[in-house]
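Exercise 7.
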Amino acid sequence: MTANQRDNLFKPARGFNKLSERLVVFLFGLFAFISIATTAGIVLTLGFETINFFQKVPLWRFLTDTQWTPLFVNPQYGIFVLLSGTFLTSVIAITVALPIGLLSAIYLSEYAPARVRRSIKPALEVLAGVPSVVFGYFALLFVTPLLQNFIPGLQGFNALSAGLVMGISITPLVGSISEDAIYSVPQSLRQGAYAMGCTKKEVVIGVVIPAALSGIVASFILAISRAVGETMIVTVAAGQNPTLTLNPLVSVQTMTSFIVQVSLGDAPTGTLAYNTLFVVGTSLFLITLLLNIFSFWFVRKFREKYE
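Solution. The predicted structure, written as tokens, is:
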């Protein structure tokens, strides 16, 4: 090859490629920094306003008061009133969502024909996209009147209807993630169990479920976090009556519905009542953070790796 021929060969623009790669790395890093900075800004805002609240209200009073009336003339700041409402609706919701979601996942992964699985799973995921306010009005206008025919004393706003419908709304979350975890279990494990003479039920219970346990538990924790942080369903259907009770037949107020109430402008900015918005937000943030930390630890502790 002559020198003239070598000059006519294709030469990639290495300088431009290096510049574009650096630009891509910079943009990706910038977006990652924005997400971290946003999270840090939220935490700092909650932290500063929470400190302002506790400079005026002792922590002991916050934990021991049995009433939550920060907007009244004689305010009370018992956070357990809101915690009881959140706990009650969340327990009802996960009692509905966990068994239905897990059994749906087992059916779709282990028993359903391929055609049925291809049809039902997308429909299940579409249900997860329904706005929560729609579920809220469904609970208030349909489920509550229906239940009042069978349950005497059920109030118009109540924790039972809100919890039941919230359980239906988070069932696709449990079902979809659990089904993915179960479906990803290697076929060799199933075939090995069948070779040992196990039945279908024994393979599912003794092999598949334990192998997918970390993914299933992760879906449970995510569902619980979603139930604790759900806003519109409980605001519309459970009412806004801050009562320290575990009776599902009466109206209750959750932490998220209280945040909605204050956000509507009932409390002037800078007042102690306004600071309660942030102290409740901080409590909610800590609860979901602990749940996510537990989920992260459990998945790393019990995750099965297959080659």
